[in-house]
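Give me structure tokens for this 252-residue protein.
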Amino acid sequence: MKNLFKKIKPISGFSHLFHFGLTILLPLFVFIFVRLDFTQLAVALIVLSKWRMFAVKPRFWPANIRANSVDIIVGFSVIVFMFHSSGPGWQLLWALVYAIWLTVIKPAQTSFLVSVQSLVAQLFGLMAIYSWESATGLELTVMTGFVCFLSARHFFDNFEEPYARLMSYTWGYFGAALAWILSYWLLFYGTIAQPTLILTIVGYAVASIYYLNKTNKLNRLLQRQFIIIMVIVVISILVFGILRLGNQITKS
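Here you go.
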């Protein structure tokens, strides 16, 4: 399987430079299509860029789709961010962010950067989901759980965790449950929704503890610091949200 992907995705020589050039062109064409209001073509372009997922026997397709899910999430999220951007400058900035993702973060194979891939995918995916103003509570719940599950699975597979599936389902369920509860009083801090903020903070803390433990760098003091900071920040967000909601109810 690995040899097959090496043939499909060159790692040296002219073919590598050609492949790198095509990778750089992808954010540019996505930017152009969004600017021309051809958002569907931008989505189709990202889907077509993942043709390598299907260049193997069909029995490998589900595994390939799961392995490429964080890249797909980031790509679709960037399109959403471009679509909601106020001007070409912000859209170009998102194209640059996408180019950095494709050329620096996505190809990385170190444990740290693969962990970063998972965190970025979850953050971008949740931000894109909660920018959908007409979404129902059920839609938010399902999509949040789905993004959390795929991001967690990418993270745990990086460490060859034997309970990766169970732990990923648990995190996905937690994300979905939180989205379902908070969808009844959805609050935003700027452009970031409350569920996105909480899941990002909790996910970062838990992932950091797990990463440090796997790399033999975790001690009891660090663990306590992560947990205490996470609890304080989450409680502060919830209390502020309750007070803000109370003010809104009083004014109405």
